[in-house]
Amino acid sequence: MKATVNLIWNALLTAVVVTLLAGLFVAAMPPVYLATATVKGDADGILIIRSGDLIAEVTRVVKPQPDDLRSWLQELTSESTDVPTMLKQNLTVEARPGEGWLDITVQARVSVTAARLANEIASAYLSRVDQNNLTPEAMAMLFQPVEDAEAALVAFLDQHPELASFRAALQPLDRELQLRARQVETVENKLAQIDEQRRAAKSDVTQLREASVVRALQRRDSVKQRVAEMETRYGSQHQKMIAVRAELRETEQQLSQALADFDTRLQQRGRDARAERAKAETALQLAKAEREALVEREARHQQLKLARESALARYNGITQEQKRYEFSEAVPPPNSLGFAQLVSLLAIFFVTFLAVFLASLLRRQE
Fold first, then answer.
1. Contacts of 347 (CB under 8 A, 6+ apart)
2. Long-range contacts for 312-318 (Cβ within 8 Å, ≥24 apart)?
3. Could you give the domains of the chain?
4. Cα dist. 158→49, 146, 290, 312, 346 in Å?
5. What average pLDDT does the chain have?
6. Residue 144 in contact with residue 324, Cβ under 8 Å?
7. pLDDT per residue as tens digits for the range 77-96
8. CA dist., res. 312 & res. 144, Å (int)
9. 95 near 51, Cβ under 8 Å?
10. 15: which of 100, 128, 328, 353 fits an S-S bond (Cβ 3.0–4.6 Å)?
11. Is the separation of the CB atoms in 93 and 104 below 8 Å?
């Protein structure tokens, strides 16, 4: 147990000494600053920014001191490198996926120098991709898609002038659609009434209001009442009873005939109503199709308008610098590597401790 504690203390002391030496080395290192400028651009812009002539142009304008860009390793090895090369080594350009922005980051020992270099690189890049100095022929060629989109829109409106006032053209179609829908509903109600009357004729004829059926029903009921009265006074074989029963049979036949005739008329009315419903539904479908065709033409009209606006926006985006090219300036930053240095020292401490402890433990077991 005591030997293990000694191993731990030896490892801790060794790790502390190594970490202190590394801390002294890091403290002796000059601070490093990172400044970032953001510009509109794409992957091709990265090649332009990292090109040698653009880097050389920026160094001629800013004139940074070599010591501002020299890394500690170059200083330790006394490596002699020209300023453009050191700037290119300290330059990072990254594209934001799907956003159309480029982040230009410069690392330097002086915060103001890092910010100036990042901003100057961004300005030099924008001046190289500036498309404002176009010839009239180039401008006309760029504007051609706008003219084509405008011509297509005008031609479509000439073919469909009602789209100049779409809502006004839609109102009569909506009224026609409502009228046809009411006609279909009326015919449906008529068919429902006919079906109800046919069911009543088979189940309870007293609910019917047809004049011929009502008269036949009244005559039959009157004769039935007379039969009931005469049965109390005469025998079944009496001449008057035989005559009144014959009259009852006749009235029942007349009622049956009236019901059959009424059912025939109902069937004819049903056929007429179904034909009327088919005609009304056809008119309704035509009204719907006409309205849908107008709506589709309006959708096409809006697509052509959008195509014209898109073409105009693309043209303006190419020819107007403030719409296509803009950048966010870098500002003098604080020390960007302080946290990274602290993490590095902690990593050195733990790695040294583990290495010494394990090495001592293995030596002891041997």
1. none
2. 312/146, 312/149, 314/145, 315/142, 315/143, 315/145, 315/146, 318/131, 318/142
3. 1-29+341-366 (no CATH), 32-130+325-336 (3.30.70), 180-299 (no CATH)
4. 50, 18, 19, 22, 77
5. 77
6. no
7. 555 678 888 888 888 888 88
8. 10
9. no
10. 353
11. yes
Name the H helices within the chain: 2-28, 43-49, 52-62, 66-69, 72-77, 83-89, 111-129, 136-159, 166-203, 211-231, 239-319, 321-324, 338-365
Burial string for 169-184 (b: 16+ CB within 10 Å, else e) reads: beeebeebbeebbebb
Sole residue written with tokens 């902690």: 346
Question: For 79-83, 164-168, 221-225, 266-270, which range has the lowest pLDDT when averaged over its residues?
Answer: 79-83
pLDDT surpasses 80 at 49 = yes
Tokens 């270099």 label which residue? 117
DSSP conformational letter for 335: B
